């Protein structure tokens, strides 16, 4: 696992969201960022014989692909960019407050774009524009992609067969 690569994808995802026209569409929460890192790894693995970009051991968890290491990297990666963190009270008693991050910076976006492989940048631009912070649609999409289709809850996800898809 390479924290620098994880940070770059997290930062890139937020900056891509920052390009959306509507202010609320520019904000992403932790669940969105984690799924976009997963989709970046998926895009990379599809072009690199099943090898992920980040080296994360993704696990099938409650809400699809999960990595505690990615979750832990969100705040430091976004604070390093100067992103704005917004916290909202949860509507549910047993849930933590909701967090949303936001940052618009064209220069930073261009800089990070040049540091990531094209399969990742093109996939994230498409997916973030398409799903943004729509949690339900994003989760549905993630569940319909390999390796989630053949995954077993609480086990690590297998990207090795992705090279056979292409």
Structure characterization notes:
The chain has 166 residues and is mainly alpha-helical. Helices cover 47% and strands 10% of the residues. The chain has helices spanning 3-17, 30-47, 68-81, 106-113, 118-131, 135-143; strands at residues 59-61, 64-66, 84-88, 98-102. It has a two-stranded antiparallel ribbon. Strands 3-4 form a two-stranded antiparallel ribbon. Helix 1 crosses helix 2. The protein is globular, with a radius of gyration of 15 Å. It starts with a helix and ends in a 23-residue tail after the last helix.
Mean pLDDT: 93
| Low-confidence spans | none
Q: What count of helical segments does DSSP give?
A: 6
Shape: globular
Helix content, binned percent? 40-55%
C-alpha-based Rg, rounded: 15 Å
Side by side, the strands of the main sheet go: 1-2
Share in β-strands:
5-15%
- Class from helix and strand fractions: mainly alpha
């Amino acid at each position: 696992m390479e924290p620098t690569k994880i940070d770059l994808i997290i930062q890139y995802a937020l900056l891509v969201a920052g390009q959306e026209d509507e202010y609320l569409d520019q904000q992403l929460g932790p669940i969105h960022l984690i799924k976009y890192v997963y989709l970046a790894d998926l895009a990379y693995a599809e072009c690199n014989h099943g090898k992920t970009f980040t080296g994360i051991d993704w696990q099938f968890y409650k809400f699809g692909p999960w990595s505690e290491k990615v979750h832990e990297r969100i705040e430091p990666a976004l604070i390093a960019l100067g992103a704005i963190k917004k916290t909202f009270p949860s509507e549910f008693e047993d849930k933590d407050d909701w967090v949303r991050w936001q940052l618009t910076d064209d220069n930073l976006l261009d800089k990070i774009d040049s540091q990531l492989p094209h399969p990742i940048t093109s996939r994230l631009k498409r997916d973030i524009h398409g799903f943004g912070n729509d949690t339900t649609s994003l989760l549905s999409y993630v569940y319909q992609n390999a390796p989630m289709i053949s995954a077993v809850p609480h086990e690590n996800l297998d990207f090795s067969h992705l090279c056979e898809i292409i």
